């Protein structure tokens, strides 16, 4: 009996038609596509994060440039050699060199004054308005890594020719 039972047994692979192999290949393709899409999204988010950091640095540098201009105007206003009825001229346009980690930024300061010379008379007080513009950029213009930020600060300075030196405060 033992001999006849072995003759009736079918091999285990006789009924299999290979459905597992195509299913596994399909699953591997789907998982590979999902991983590739995830890696692409990760790369894009890292690039975006890097640009956000550069934009924040550029804005801080542009603000710093206008603060430097404001400081220069304040020092000129306090200058004892400046006559009582005059207001300082704009600080000269300048390119600023910044320390690390801002060393890669190109930063410029520009100033315009209204009126360009002299002052406006408001009841005996002398006034002049200043527009300080800080411009900071990093990267090559036109590239996807280029960032540029501008910051503008406006202020009006006043002098009272009849006031007490050295500031002739209003």
Notes on the structure:
The radius of gyration is 36 Å and the shape is rod-shaped. It has one domain. Strands 1, 2, 3, 4 and 5 form a 5-stranded antiparallel β-sheet that branches. It is of the alpha+beta class. The mean pLDDT is 86. The chain has helices at 2-8, 20-78; strands spanning 94-96, 106-114, 120-122, 125-138, 147-159. It has 2 helices and 5 strands; from the N terminus they run H-H-E-E-E-E-E.
Supply database-style keywords.
170 residues; alpha+beta
Q: Describe the largest sheet.
A: 5 strands, antiparallel
Summed up, the helix count is: 2
Question: What structural category arises from helix and sheet content?
Answer: alpha+beta
Number of domains: 1
Strand-helix topology:
Blueprint: H1 2-8, H2 20-78, E1 94-96, E2 106-114, E3 120-122, E4 125-138, E5 147-159
Antiparallel strand pairs: 1-2, 2-4, 3-4, 4-5
Give a quick precis of the structure.
The protein has 170 residues and is of the alpha+beta class. The protein has 2 helices and 5 strands; from the N terminus they run H-H-E-E-E-E-E. It has one domain.
């Amino acid at each position: 009996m033992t001999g006849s039972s072995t003759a009736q047994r079918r091999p285990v692979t006789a009924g299999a038609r290979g459905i597992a192999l195509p299913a596994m290949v399909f699953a591997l393709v789907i998982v590979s596509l999902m991983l590739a899409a995830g890696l692409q999204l990760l790369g894009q988010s890292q690039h975006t994060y890097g640009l956000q950091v550069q934009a924040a640095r550029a804005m801080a540098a542009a603000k710093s440039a206008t603060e430097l201009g404001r400081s220069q105007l304040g020092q000129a206003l306090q200058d004892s050699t400046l006559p009582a009825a005059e207001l300082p001229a704009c600080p000269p346009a300048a390119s600023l060199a910044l320390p690390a980690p801002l060393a890669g930024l190109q930063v410029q300061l520009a100033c315009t004054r209204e009126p360009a010379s002299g002052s406006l008379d408001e009841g005996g007080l002398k006034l002049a308005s200043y527009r300080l513009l800080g411009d900071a950029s990093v990267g090559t213009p036109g590239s996807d890594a280029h960032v540029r930020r501008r910051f503008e600060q406006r202020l009006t300075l006043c002098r009272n020719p009849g006031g007490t030196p050295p500031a002739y405060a209003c």
